[in-house]
Specification:
Elements: H1 2-7, H2 11-26, E1 35-42, H3 48-61, E2 67-72, H4 79-92, E3 98-102, H5 110-122, H6 125-129, E4 138-142, H7 145-154, E5 161-168, H8 173-187, H9 201-210, H10 214-228, H11 235-247, H12 255-262, H13 267-278, E6 283-285, E7 295-297, H14 301-311, H15 317-334, H16 340-352, H17 366-383, H18 391-404, H19 415-424, H20 432-441, H21 448-464, H22 471-480, H23 493-511, H24 521-526, H25 539-551, H26 558-571, H27 576-596, H28 603-613, H29 618-630, H30 641-652, H31 657-677, H32 685-695, H33 700-712, H34 720-730, H35 736-748, E8 752-753, E9 756-757, H36 760-771, H37 777-798, H38 802-805, H39 810-826, H40 829-843
Parallel strand pairs: 1-4, 1-5, 2-3, 3-4
Antiparallel strand pairs: 6-7, 8-9
Helix pairs in contact: 2-3, 4-5, 10-14, 11-14, 11-15, 15-17, 16-18, 17-18, 18-20, 19-21, 21-22, 21-23, 25-27, 26-27, 27-28, 27-29, 28-30, 30-31, 31-32, 32-34, 33-34, 34-36, 35-36, 36-39, 37-39, 37-40, 39-40
């Protein structure tokens, strides 16, 4: 309670909820549909988990009742189930669903986390494909910043996921004082003196709870353990040292392995171990459910690291190396029937410690890791047959160690063994996808012969398994290494043939009818060679694209592929026959979408593009009129149909006056509907309002919308006059409401922009001046205010450099003349002289 109460007052935590809520509110207005993930990051021990709970509780208090809790770390396997439940909730509720996860990428679950994330995203393909972002849940999670980087490296898919984040800084002196105040108010006494505020909060809480400094606690704890074990080998002390050596790297020590070790110790040692559990110095995570990553932890990893470093200083390094080697080999030996993820979690920790930004990089000397890679791999191979699902971590560890010291020869190279497994594995073999991705991730660190072997091995699997779910994503990564700026450069005939084979494999896959509805078809298509040597689009590429466009009108990538193909043709030696066939395909798509998915957010983009280029526009005009009749435009994901409406009106302007009026009168309800839901649209709104007002100049709803728009507009757009002038003319010149609106515009609008008059300002001023009559005190007062506005405008104009005034257009010059002449008529002789001087000075 002490921690949570403090964090509720910490400023950084107070802003997290607003940021998550802003993401939720903006989801219905996204141009695409991706899974949003908000990652609360920061250093270990800064309070990320409590921040996550705080954000979720605050969201619940704000009315978001559908909050699903996945769990911690290895519970990531529950994510697909949570997403499925979220979709079910959305079927009966309009409320956004939020999913919370604590530490979604810890070493214990790292190897299989990608699979669970991909399963979760696969469940969201329908709302993604149908462009319904509001139906996609929002994931809020927390974890160290380096885990976020590992997550991006291993899992991020830009076409599927939108990753947000906020980093929680280490507590400052102000935070420390705030915490002390909170401690006093809750506990009723001064907090223990821990020597300052320059320590992580996790350590601070530990020291306040124990009442002594961590260094002192570690020494006392060491003495207590050694005193409890009378054996000469101090086996309990060694076991706890090994547990700490793993804990500080975010890995648990399996319960089964510890119990086997304890069974061989004295009764005193076993009793001491049980006391540690009862006193919560030692904790068991998820033992009852036997989750991956379950096992013993001694406090937070930061605290475990501090204790371990006090027990075992950095030198001699052999002692630290021995603890890790013994602990991991015991896990290999005793955990023979356990989960493979639990067995390999410490190895993932070793590999992650080689990441430069990892906090464990400072805790573990890379020399120790390089010394361990070969003996640990030998030990693992002796413990049981090496299956394909266990090889990713060994390849990762070996390659990273070799990259740190290229001249040093490391024995027990797992690379060729792993590639042989890939070539001979069943497409459904567990771990095959992860192993292939791992090789592609490490591709830059491999030597030339290894790169060639990787390309051959994975390409062989892709040929044999075109139905492979990860085929498009795997191939997309593969082709990037052999693209126009290749990472892998073919240097001989054999390698050149390999590169050609990569391209041909791509063509074979996209041309297969069984794959053309695949969600990732666009990614594979985008990697095809588009142009021939003459810089024209290849016939094979275009015919493939044309067939796909005509066969798969419901695919979520239809617009992107159509638009990309059209742009490629335009930018590279334009072929008219290609453009004509693309326009024909788009017309068919517009008809199909009207019948099957008339809320498609790109319908209007396609319609406008085709309408712009088509000579005979009547067919498309009829299609758009049908769109307006058959759809509820309010449900459109954006208001882009207003621009289509504007194009249609421009087309009708070519008709006779009678036909034009008839057509626009029929569109009037749609015009009014769009104006009503798009009041914040600054540029198109006044144009369409002027059309609606022209047809029905005295319609009260149109007049009221115009007044509302003018009352809320904040910048002097050029088209403001299109609303102001007809409204001012049709209402009484002394209408108090219009006078109030006009004076607001004069005071809030900028008078000049880029040394030229703002277009609407002089017009509004002249209308108000000419309408004001000196009949009563109130209007005289208003005239005086207008006079001051006008004089300020003239003075600001006179200050502009003469050369810039010389390029003003006629309307700008006339605005100066008209404002000057009206003020000159009523001002004093002295003021008139000053105005003459300003005019003459700038005219010269």
């Amino acid at each position: 309670m002490l921690r949570r109460g403090y964090f509720c007052q910490r400023p950084i935590f107070l802003s997290l909820t607003e940021k998550v809520e802003s993401i939720i509110r903006g989801m219905p207005y996204q141009d695409d549909a991706k899974l949003p993930i908000f990652w609360i990051g920061g250093r270990s021990g800064t309070g990320k988990s409590i921040a996550l709970l705080y954000v979720l509780s605050q969201l619940f208090d704000r009315g978001y009742e559908h909050i699903l809790w996945v769990g911690h770390g290895d519970d990531i396997r529950n994510l697909p189930l949570a997403v499925r439940h979220a979709l079910e909730l959305r079927q009966s509720s309009d409320q956004q669903v939020i999913i919370g996860i604590d530490d979604p990428h810890i070493p214990a679950s790292q190897n299989e986390a990608s699979r669970y994330w991909q399963q979760a995203v696969d469940l969201l393909r329908q709302p993604m494909q149908e462009f319904e972002p509001e139906k996609i849940p929002v994931i809020v999670c927390c974890g160290p910043t380096e885990q976020k980087e590992l997550f991006e490296r291993d899992n991020i898919r830009p076409d599927q996921v939108r990753l947000y984040g906020e980093t929680i800084p280490q507590a400052s002196g102000d935070d420390y004082e705030l915490l002390c105040d909170y401690y006093r108010s809750r506990v009723g006494r001064e907090p223990p003196n821990t020597g300052g505020s320059d320590i992580l909060l996790t350590q601070l809480f530990f020291e306040w709870e124990s009442g002594i400094r961590l260094t002192e606690f570690a020494e006392r704890f060491k003495q207590r353990i050694q005193f409890s074990d009378f054996s000469q080998e101090k086996e309990l002390y060694n076991l706890l040292s090994e547990i700490l050596s793993l804990n500080r790297l975010y890995a648990a020590y399996p319960v089964e392995v510890a119990q086997r070790r304890l069974a061989k110790m004295s009764a005193g040692a076993m009793l001491a171990f049980e006391n540690l559990l009862e006193e919560n110095h030692l904790q068991v995570l998820n033992e009852a459910d036997n989750h991956r990553g379950s096992g013993y932890f001694m406090q937070h990893p930061h605290v475990a690291n501090a204790i371990y470093e006090i027990w075992h200083p950095e030198k001699p390094a052999k002692k630290r190396q021995k603890h890790l080697k013994t602990a991991i080999e015991n896990i290999f030996e005793y955990n023979g029937n356990g989960d493979e993820e639990a067995r390999l979690a410490p190895v993932w920790s070793l590999s992650n410690s080689l990441e430069p930004n990892s906090p464990t990089a400072a805790r573990l000397d890379s020399e120790i890791v390089r010394n361990l890679v070969a003996p640990l791999y030998r030990s693992y191979r002796k413990s049981r047959p090496v299956l394909i699902d266990s090889l990713a971590v060994w390849v990762d560890l070996y390659v990273r160690c070799r990259n740190l010291e290229p001249d040093r020869k490391l024995h027990e190279n797992p690379i060729h063994f792993a590639l042989d497994k890939i070539r001979n594995a069943s497409p459904k073999a567990k771990g095959l996808i992860n192993l292939c991705y791992k090789f592609l991730q490490l591709f830059y660190l491999l030597d030339k012969s290894e790169k060639t072997s990787v390309l051959y091995s994975i390409l062989e699997q892709l040929k044999l398994s075109p139905e492979w779910e990860d085929w498009p994503l795997m191939w997309d990564r593969l082709r990037k290494f052999t693209s126009m700026t290749p990472v892998y450069k073919a240097e001989n005939q054999e390698e050149q043939e390999l590169v050609k084979e990569v391209v041909e494999t791509d063509f074979s896959w996209v041309e297969d009818l069984n794959n053309q509805n695949n969600y990732y078809w666009q990614q594979v298509w985008a990697g095809l060679p588009k142009l021939n040597r003459k810089g024209r689009m290849t016939v094979r590429f275009f015919k493939l694209t044309e067939r796909w466009l005509n066969r798969t009108p419901t695919h979520h990538s239809w617009y992107f592929i159509w638009n990309n193909c059209r742009r490629t043709n335009r930018e590279n030696k334009f072929e008219h026959w290609i453009e004509e066939r693309l326009l024909a395909a788009s017309t068919d798509w517009l008809r199909h979408a009207l019948e099957n998915n008339f809320y498609h957010p790109f319908w209007n983009k396609v319609w406008r593009a085709v309408f712009q280029e088509t000579v005979d526009k009547q067919l498309l005009a009829d299609l758009f009129e049908k769109y307006l009749r058959d759809t509820n435009a309010r449900k459109s994901s954006n208001n882009s149909w207003g621009w289509s409406l504007d194009k249609l009106i421009q087309y009708y302007e070519t008709f006779s006056p009678e036909e034009y009026k008839s057509k626009i009168s029929a569109l009037q309800p749609d015009l009014v509907k769009w104006l009503n839901i798009s009041l914040n649209e600054p540029s198109l709104w006044p144009h369409l309002w002027a059309v609606a007002h022209q047809i029905e100049p005295f319609e009260k709803q149109v007049i009221d919308m115009g007044k509302t728009w003018l009352s809320n507009i904040t910048s002097d757009y050029r088209a403001v006059r299109r609303v102001w002038t007809p409204l001012f003319e049709i209402t009484a010149p002394n209408n108090p409401e219009m006078v109030t609106i006009g004076e607001r515009l004069l005071t809030e609008f900028t008078r000049f922009y880029n040394d030229k008059p703002r277009n609407s300002w002089p017009i509004i001023w002249l209308d108000l001046w000419d309408a004001a009559e000196n009949r009563n005190h109130e209007q005289i007062s208003f005239r005086l205010r207008l006079m001051e506005y006008g004089k300020a405008w003239i003075e600001e104009a006179a200050a502009i450099d003469c050369e810039k005034v010389m390029v003003w257009d006629v309307e700008d010059i006339n605005s100066w003349k008209m404002i000057w002449s009206r003020i000159e008529e009523v001002c004093t002789m002295e003021e008139s002289f000053d105005l003459h001087q300003l005019w003459i000075g700038n005219s010269a």
